[in-house]
Specification:
This protein is of the alpha/beta class and 424 residues long. It has two domains: 2-231 and 405-421, 3-Layer(aba) Sandwich (Rossmann fold), CATH 3.40.50.2000; 244-403, Rossmann fold (3-Layer(aba) Sandwich), CATH 3.40.50. It contains 17 helices and twelve strands. Helix 1 (11-26) crosses helix 17 (407-421), helix 5 (93-104) packs across helix 6 and helix 13 (329-338) crosses helix 16 (389-403). The two termini are 17 Å apart. 46% of the residues are buried.
């Protein structure tokens, strides 16, 4: 069958969907992936068809959001930040909607990440084909924890449960008018009501969650059409060849600490890099600094720290003694799978939620929000991560459990059931 996958987001959002697409294609389906043009080589190299998503400069958008998040604090109101992010997309909605329509025509199933879910939902309605929501964060209503973008820790059963309709009520009004104009003008569909996202909470559209039940056990009050599959990791078809500088650095001493903020666009990167370098030095740890989008690269580095642009996490992290990152879903998954302690410096959105899971699972020290990052705090966290035997044992045990899972195969099996029976 023809399946279209749609992703609006960063590399951490796109990569798991590419892994899922590879699994679907291996099962005999023809797969097209709609996402940002920057990821076209990545998608095509994986053997998937590509359709570009115009109108959204994802790097610029992430940069604006990270700057705002650092000012407000990562433990602040992530709901307000999420609404701010959605509002920034209003002007792009017509071109985004048209790209979804073009990419999905001829498809027999749409698998979409839940950002701007009204767009793939509308396209599926017009084409009269099934829609599957593929999410990397929990968003089904539960009384066990609040909506991840609202607050990272439990607010109590009642407030936890009500945080989900709160998010729906807050997020939809600013998008309703432009989405409905597009629906009516381009798809000839009636307007969606102001209660649309509230109704979505109760809809029976299948949800596949690309994380591990060892990290977030399925809440007892989740519906049957929501399935936690395990993480969606890329297969490694051939060994990655590291640069000589990295090979030589790893051979020259004990396992270092990997530090990087992935797709977060770090403002004042020299200041951030200086904090990291001084903290590693104070904790007497070697480090591999992953510069990424944020440009974490000071002018001079001591011999015990190496800076590289990027490296596959599945290759690099198992060779580390610990990892420091921003708490994105993909980086967190890779750290868990490697079986090493994780230090999270969350910026925004769901990152405080994953940071809290790291702490609650006992596989890393308490998170350090980006706005509170200091040499002293990071050095203390590094010393804990490398010396706490209980933490290291729990991290190794979690990694072994995750490595035994096959999230892609479980998700593909779920999609096969939907195609044949209509349900999970």
């Amino acid at each position: 069958m023809n399946v279209t996958l749609t992703v609006l987001g960063t590399r951490g959002d796109v990569q798991p969907m590419v892994a899922l697409g590879i699994g679907l294609q291996a099962a005999g389906h023809r797969v097209k992936l709609l996402t940002h043009p920057a990821f076209e080589p990545f998608v095509r190299d994986a053997g998937l068809d590509f359709h570009g998503l115009p109108g959204v400069d994802i790097k610029a958008m992430v940069g604006r959001l990270t700057e705002r998040a650092v000012r407000k604090g990562a433990n602040g109101n992530q709901l307000i930040l999420a609404i701010h992010a959605l509002r920034r997309l209003k002007a792009d909605l017509p071109v985004i909607g048209d790209a979804y329509w073009e990419a999905c025509r001829g498809a027999e199933l749409i698998v979409a990440n839940p950002v701007l879910i009204a767009i793939p939902d509308s396209v599926a309605e017009k084409l009269a084909i099934p829609l599957v929501i593929a999410a990397l964060q929990p968003f089904d209503r539960t009384d066990e924890f609040p909506f991840p973008w609202v607050y990272p820790r439990s607010l109590g059963r009642l407030l936890n449960r009500w945080s989900y309709p709160l998010m729906a009520l807050a997020a939809w009004p600013s998008l309703a008018a432009p989405v409905n104009r597009w629906r009516q003008a381009h798809l000839a569909l009636p307007a969606l009501p102001l209660t649309y996202l509230l109704r979505r909470l109760h809809a029976t559209v299948p949800r596949l969650y690309g994380f591990s039940a060892h990290v977030v056990p399925k809440p007892r009050d989740w519906p049957a059409h929501s399935q936690i599959t395990g993480y969606w990791f890329l297969p490694r078809a051939e060994p990655w060849r590291p640069p000589d500088a990295l090979t030589d650095f790893l051979a020259a001493g004990p396992p270092p600490v990997a530090v990087g903020f992935g797709s977060m666009v770090v403002h004042h990167p020299e200041e951030s890099a200086a904090i990291i370098v001084r903290a590693l030095t104070r904790a007497r740890q070697r480090g591999v600094l992953l510069t990424g989008w944020g440009g974490l690269q000071p002018s001079d580095l001591p011999d015990h720290i190496l800076a590289i642009d990027a490296a596959p996490h599945d290759w690099l992290f198992p060779r580390m003694t610990a990892v420091v990152h921003h708490g994105g879903a993909g980086s967190t998954a890779a750290g868990f799978r490697a079986g090493i302690p994780t230090i999270v410096i969350p910026f925004m959105m769901d990152q405080p939620f994953w940071a809290q899971r790291v702490q609650d699972l006992g596989v890393g020290p308490p998170p350090i929000p980006r706005g509170q990052l200091t040499v002293e705090r990071l050095a203390a966290a590094l010393e804990t991560a490398v010396s706490d035997r209980g933490m290291r044992h729990r991290a190794a045990e979690l990694g072994a459990n995750i490595r035994q899972e096959d999230g892609v195969a479980n998700a593909v099996a779920g999609i096969q059931r939907i195609l044949t029976t209509g349900t999970l």
